[in-house]
Amino acid sequence: MFKAKILLIGPNELFSRNTYLFQSGKTVLANFLSDATENVGGEYRPTQAVRILEYESQLDGCGDVKSCEVELWDCSGDFKFESCWPALMKDCSGVVIVFNPDIPSQLKEIETWHSMFIASQSLQDSQCLLIAHHKPGSAMEEGRLSLASQLNRFTLIHSEMEEEPEDLRRAFCRYLGKVVNTLSESREQEEMSIIT
User: Fold this and answer.
1) How far apart are CA 11 and CA 100, in angstroms?
2) How wide is the angle at C-alpha 141 spanned by C-alphas 19 and 42, nearest 5°?
3) What pLDDT is recorded for position 16?
4) Are 68 and 176 in contact (CB under 8 A)?
5) Proportion of the chain above pLDDT 90, given as a percent
6) What span, in angstroms and rounded, lies between the C-alpha atoms of 33 and 55?
7) Which of 107, 100, 189, 190 is nearest to 148 (CA)?
8) What DSSP letter does each residue of 151-190 carry, written as one string?
9) Cα dihedral sign for 34, 42, 81, 138?
10) At what angle do helices 26-34 and 165-195 cross, to 10 degrees?
11) I need a surface site. Which of 26, 54, 127, 157 has the fewest CB within 10 A?
């Protein structure tokens, strides 16, 4: 069975709702995608460096491979942990950049995340995903966002956890299928180079 190490990265952000503070979405998404139940409700606690969630996922569009083991690395968006990021990137299979499209500065900031986590590792486009994570109650516009040219190559999905959470899960499973296909092709090429 394939094992996929996926980094969930993106800007730090806090917003308030009814006197509670909620995170920008990486931890919420990680908990949802992995079916984890920790940190539900209550007081917001920012992720310290990284939090790793392990689970098995069914794949879409991946040929003979029907499932894979997933290590979802919920990485802090706080730059005070920047010295840890090279270690987090080691042997990663894919990168997901989560951002709030309602905050214009984050559209620019994700370019930095791209250069540090994607360009530096020479990942293929199929190994990268952008999630425009909309906050509860915000107006969700699925139109084209004004992204830098290097980001327009990646699949972009809009998420809104209160409206269509299963659409997000299906889109993420399709992404995982692409990542596993890339890993499988790479493994086959490596085996062929050994044989020849």
Assistant:
1) 8
2) 20
3) 42
4) yes
5) 37
6) 9
7) 107
8) TTTSEEEEE-TTT-HHHHHHHHHHHHHHHHHHHHHHHHHH
9) positive
10) 80
11) 54
Q: In the chain, what is the straight-line distance between the N-terminal and C-terminal CA atoms, in Å? A: 25
In the numeric block, the tokens 């069914």 are attached to 58
Q: Which residues contact 43 (CB under 8 A, 6 or more apart)?
A: 20, 21
53, 39 Cβ separation under 8 angstroms: no
Phi-psi label, residue 73: left if phi above 0, alpha if psi -120 to 50, beta otherwise:
beta
pLDDT digits (tens, 9 = 90+) for 69-109: 999 999 988 889 999 999 999 999 999 999 988 888 888 88
Among residues 82, 98, 3, 2, the alpha carbon closest in space to that of 50 is found at: 82
DSSP for residue 38: T
pLDDT for 14: 47
Q: Write out pLDDT tens, residues 39-63.
A: 445 555 667 778 999 999 887 665 6
